[in-house]
């Protein structure tokens, strides 16, 4: 949209979104196409029950990329006439509607699956607590308790990661709708885009508030994954630093950062929260401007085009990566603990075999050989089994009164005199 609009003959003010050359816009478009192709790979991890939904989003994404690649060749040739081409309308219609909804639904299902997998893993760990060997029960108990505690702390970052990704998705949608709004020619079209931008800002504020201070945004009322989002500001010191205390530039290309004295230096070097709040305020005011003032080179939209498209967008991506790194580190810690447990278990099993089971087996073999030799000397008419049973009863139940009481309960049957002891 920006390339076609800025190529018009009557667009002479090369500021804001039109401050970049057509080659720069095409290079950015090509870079994002490559990124979309890379990010499509993760949809293959969708659980089997949602294959149809993820396949639909994947196919639409491929068509969207194909249309964008056509734009790379058509835009330099058609310039402002490109807005009449079918690929322009395909990108505008599907990019802001079905593609966004498909990707959001895929993310929703993936996070829900991850949440449920952690719950299932916790259940399996609890079931495996019954360990048949008492020697290392204490060690196993400690390891599993630590694992459960760490797994307990992994589900909330998943909810935060989901919300951080939704905020990023929502922000890119706000950017696209704002661009369509300021570049619209007809009054009816501007009215439609103005209403849509106002609605998106409401959802953006709701989701951003949930990410920062916890809760359930209204946009997730019909989602599969409906979990209360923890307050990211208080749950992660790294997250709080990025949004409130960071004094550096968030651009990946540090050479392109604003220098001291620039009008946007302060807002881009005091954390992400300042930029997000400023962007929302500027776009809110833009929806209140008259049609003749809601143009691409207005100061309100120039902030979105210059700061929002670079510093804010790349900063939000880095913030979402904080939760990814945290979740991966927790998984690595649990894996490391269980690796240590496995090594200790192998050592204990070997020690059990060498120091307990093998000596005990040899002793039992010697005792069996000795008892076999002794029993071979017993006369055949002696009831050896009854004799052994009687001896054990005499050792276990001492005292005649106790034996009579047990006999009255039917536990011990009084019998005649015990078989005579055999002198060997």
Main β-sheet: number of strands, strand sense, barrel status? Answer: none
Strand content: under 5%
- The helix/strand order is HHHHHHHHHHHHHHH
Given helix and strand content, the structural type is mainly alpha
The value of Rg in angstroms is 37 Å
- List how many beta strands DSSP finds: 0
Shape: elongated
What is the CA–CA distance across the termini? 108 Å
Mean pLDDT: 76
Helical run tally: 15
Helix-residue proportion:
over 70%
CATH class of the largest domain: Mainly Alpha
What is the number of domains? 3
CATH topology of the largest domain: f41 fragment of flagellin, N-terminal domain
Name of the CATH architecture of the largest domain: Up-down Bundle
Note poorly predicted spans: 37-55, 411-424
Describe this structure in words.
The chain folds into three domains: 1-96; 129-376, f41 fragment of flagellin, N-terminal domain; 387-424, no CATH class. It contains 15 helices and no strands. It has helices at 2-6, 22-39, 51-78, 86-96, 98-127, 137-152, 155-183, 187-213, 232-235, 237-245, 265-268, 272-288, 299-375, 384-396, 400-408. Mean pLDDT is 76; it is low at 37-55 and 411-424. The chain crosses the membrane at residues 125-146, 337-358. Keywords: Membrane, Transmembrane, Transmembrane helix.
């Amino acid at each position: 949209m920006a390339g076609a609009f800025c190529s018009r003959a009557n667009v002479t003010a090369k500021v804001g979104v039109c401050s970049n050359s057509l080659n720069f816009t095409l290079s950015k478009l090509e870079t994002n196409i490559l990124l979309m192709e890379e990010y499509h790979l993760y949809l293959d991890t969708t659980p089997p029950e949602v294959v149809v939904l993820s396949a639909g989003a994947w196919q639409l994404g491929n068509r969207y990329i194909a249309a964008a690649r056509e734009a790379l060749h058509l835009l330099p040739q058609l310039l402002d006439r490109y807005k009449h081409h079918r690929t322009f309308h395909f990108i505008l219609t599907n990019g802001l509607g079905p593609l966004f909804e498909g990707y959001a639904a895929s993310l929703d299902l993936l996070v829900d699956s991850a949440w449920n997998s952690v719950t299932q893993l916790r259940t399996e760990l609890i079931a495996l607590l019954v360990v048949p060997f008492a020697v290392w029960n204490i060690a196993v108990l400690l390891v599993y308790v630590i694992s459960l505690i760490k797994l307990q702390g992994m589900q909330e970052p998943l909810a935060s990661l989901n919300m951080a990704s939704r905020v990023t998705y929502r922000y890119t949608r706000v950017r696209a709708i704002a661009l369509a709004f300021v570049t619209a020619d007809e009054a009816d079209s501007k009215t439609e885009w103005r209403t849509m931008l106002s609605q998106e800002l409401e959802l953006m504020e709701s989701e951003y508030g949930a990410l920062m201070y916890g809760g359930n945004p209204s946009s997730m009322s019909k989602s599969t994954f409906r979990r209360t989002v923890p307050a990211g500001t208080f749950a992660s010191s790294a997250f709080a630093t990025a949004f409130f205390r960071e004094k550096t530039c968030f651009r990946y290309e540090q050479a392109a950062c604003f220098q001291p004295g620039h009008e946007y230096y302060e807002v881009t070097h005091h954390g992400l929260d300042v930029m997000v709040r400023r962007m929302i305020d500027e776009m809110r005011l833009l929806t209140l401007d008259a049609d003749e003032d809601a143009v691409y080179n207005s100061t309100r939209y120039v902030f979105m085009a210059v700061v929002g498209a670079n510093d804010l967008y790349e900063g939000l991506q880095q913030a979402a990566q904080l939760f990814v790194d945290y979740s991966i580190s927790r998984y690595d810690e649990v894996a490391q603990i269980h690796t240590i447990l496995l090594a200790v278990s192998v050592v204990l099993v070997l020690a059990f075999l060498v120091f307990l089971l093998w000596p005990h087996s040899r002793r039992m073999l010697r005792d069996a050989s000795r008892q076999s030799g002794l029993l071979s000397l017993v006369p055949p008419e002696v009831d050896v089994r009854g004799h052994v049973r009687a001896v054990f009863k005499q050792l276990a139940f001492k005292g005649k009164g106790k034996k009579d009481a047990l006999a009255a309960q039917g536990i011990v049957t009084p019998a005649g005199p015990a078989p005579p002891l055999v002198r060997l």
